[in-house]
Automatic annotation (TrEMBL):
It comes from the Bacteria. Residues 218-242 form the Ice-binding protein C-terminal domain. Residues 1-21 form the signal peptide. Residues 26-50 are annotated as: Disordered. The keyword Signal applies. Residues 26-39 have a biased composition (Polar residues). InterPro entries: Ice-binding_C. Keywords: Signal. This is Putative secreted protein with PEP-CTERM sorting signal.
Amino acid sequence: MKMKQAAIVMAMALAAGSAAAATTDFSSGTQGWEGSQPLNGIGGSGIDTSQGNGAPSYRTVMENFGISFTNSTNTDFVHDYTATSAVTFGIDVQTQSIRFFGQEVQRDLILELRDYDNATNGLPYTSVWYNLGTLDAAVGGWQHYSVTIDATSSVGLPAGWGGYGAEDAVGNPFLPSDRTFASVLAGVDEIAFTTFQPGYMYGFTDFDVSVDNISVSAVPEPSTYAMLGAGLLFIGAAARRRKQG
């Protein structure tokens, strides 16, 4: 009986962890992810089965000011992130080329969590954003980028994070005074991996960039670890009793 109880406890703990994790590797379609569309009608975004980091990739080839990979429909990626105490975002990127006036250049990759329902100041949304690192074709191959939010209930912006939803006199973005880091995380309507960094603007650039294995995984709550530990203790004790018997 106790073995059965332990199995149930462990199943509940594992389910709690798996329910808070999601990955899109594009082997089952886009799962809500959308790439940028070209301004000149040349190029575009779509699944590429000729390359991928373990599966097909999602590739954007176009000329534009910047590119974005966004999701506003998949509830595995668009939801209240304050429901768990911590969360990690990850993405694999292969930069084939980023050319500006014929020269290879670098662009920053930004993770932006957007709330469209509480926009103010004439801007389209309120957001919090983080610079994941640099896209550079010279590096070659697939590169992994990630960031962990250790406290989703934080009022102020954690180190390295920026805010958007208001602008100062010269156009520098900041988080409006009536919003907090946690209040934006509680109402995320769209998640974006983008080269558009709030407050910056670039000219027309030729992009050839692929993404894969986009993931979000919540760090299990202490109670989940406690359930898992209890299940293991039950099983260990039962095994010892059987051996002694």
